[in-house]
Design goal:
With 339 residues, the chain is mainly beta. The protein contains four helices and 19 strands. Helices cover 7% and strands 27% of the residues. Strands 9, 10, 11, 12 and 13 form a five-stranded antiparallel beta sheet that branches. The protein has a four-stranded antiparallel beta sheet with strand order 1-2-3-4, with no helix packed on it.
Length: 339
């Protein structure tokens, strides 16, 4: 069934699910799950704040024992204070964010919740268009706190952190298979959004013209979502085979940015790590660390960690003759890291 579902577009998957499935009434959170206070307190400058993928915008992802208020020796003595569950979800993969007295977290069903860090009750919820996998980012925006996050359908959102009301949302890339899995980074009023994709799985079908997605980073103004710059990590794909001989192959493609960027304000640089190519030709900006200008998005330098890494699911079927991989499919002793 996976081989049938992988090549389908999102709207086709949804139509089939609605046709085959049974429509059940979605049960909302019960009234008792909500806090007496509708709005969380966010202005508290708690040393334990952990906003986004890291407690700081430098993306160091380290919390000292002083900031945590917890020593290593105390960990065995911890006891459960409260637990929170998402109705209907079978997966919880979004890292939470803490700002002041609130914990923000996304879910596989696209629900974003503001939870009291002390009591575990709900302040508010918001329904995104798709699953929310990355840790939300909280930034101080003019007179309010904004909660910034992306979903796996390629939409990026800004919510009022106190009320959960939508401030703006923006589609990051026009490619149908775009998904946002990495947390955004922030600097001087600009939010940097990495873009990944699930297109390499669609090549399981020999009829799919693989591939056209290009990993990218988009810089948006946090105040209104307007674009400052957009930088692709690859050149535009071109046809690499004769369509008269079958399904056309295209490339280069891939180099998705799965994880959170790192801001280097001292050098004016944004660092990102990229994934593999989906189709040949192989490029030097795949499987690489890439440095971009914070102001313009221009690539300053890149350092490739694994060369010649071209893979899509079509390679799993025929590692030699796959129309979208050709001789670039990885050999058995050098499998793609994600395969």
């Amino acid at each position: 069934m996976m081989s049938i579902a992988y090549p389908l577009r999102r709207e086709d998957r949804k139509a089939i699910a609605n046709f085959l499935g049974t429509k059940a009434k979605e049960e909302p959170f019960p009234p008792g799950a909500y806090c007496p206070e509708k709005e969380p307190s966010l202005s508290a400058k708690s040393a334990g704040n952990w906003t986004g993928w890291s407690p700081t915008f430098s993306n160091t992802r380290f919390q000292s024992s002083e900031a945590a208020g917890l020593a290593t020796s105390q960990i065995p003595n911890l006891k459960l204070k409260w637990a929170f569950g998402f109705p209907g979800d079978t997966t919880a993969f979004g890292a939470p964010t803490i700002q002041g007295e609130a914990l923000f977290t996304g879910s596989a069903s696209g629900i974003v919740a503001a939870v009291s860090a002390k009591a575990g009750c709900l302040h508010w919820t918001f329904q995104a268009d798709g699953p929310v996998r990355a840790a939300p980012l909280v930034v101080e925006n003019d007179i309010r706190y904004a909660l910034l996050f992306g979903d796996q359908f390629g939409w990026f959102y800004a919510l009022d952190g106190k009320t959960g009301k939508l401030i703006w949302k923006r589609r990051i890339d026009d490619h149908e298979s775009t998904r946002l899995t990495g947390s955004a980074a922030f600097d001087n009023g600009i939010v940097f959004v990495p873009a990944a994709s699930w297109e390499e799985t669609r090549a399981v079908s020999p009829d799919y013209p693989c591939c056209t997605f290009r990993g990218s980073v988009t810089a948006l103004r946090a105040s209104d979502g307007s674009q400052v710059w957009k930088s692709y990590l690859l050149d535009a794909p071109r046809k690499t085979s004769d369509p008269k001989r079958g399904t056309p192959a295209l490339g280069p493609s891939g180099a998705p940015v799965w994880s959170a960027p790192t801001v280097d304000t001292k050098r004016g640089v944004l660092y990102v790590a990229t994934g593999d190519n989906y189709s040949p030709p192989a490029t030097a900006t795949s499987d690489a660390v890439v440095a971009l200008s914070l102001k313009t998005g221009q690539i300053i330098w890149s350092k490739e960690a694994t060369s010649g890494d071209v893979f899509n699911v079509g390679c799993s079927r025929d590692k030699v003759n796959s129309p979208s991989c050709g001789a670039h499919c990885p050999s058995k002793d050098r499998q793609d890291h994600g395969s």
